[in-house]
Amino acid sequence: MEELARKIAIAIVMIVPAFVIAGLLWDITESWAVVVLWEIAMVVIYFSVIRRLSSHNSHPKQAHA
Questions:
Q1: How many Å apart are CA 45 and CA 1, to the nearest integer?
Q2: Domain segments of the chain: what residues?
């Protein structure tokens, strides 16, 4: 459950720059293609962050002696 909450929190944090920069890109280019490409890039970044976090959490922590 804790991992799900963390994934949701990361997604919420990433929504803000995704929308703000998408709006800025639309204002500059007035091209939906550019905005969609930006949003796809943000989704790819989100899943790479989640995958990295999942791989770190799947390895048991070893005690340092």
A1: 22
A2: 2-55
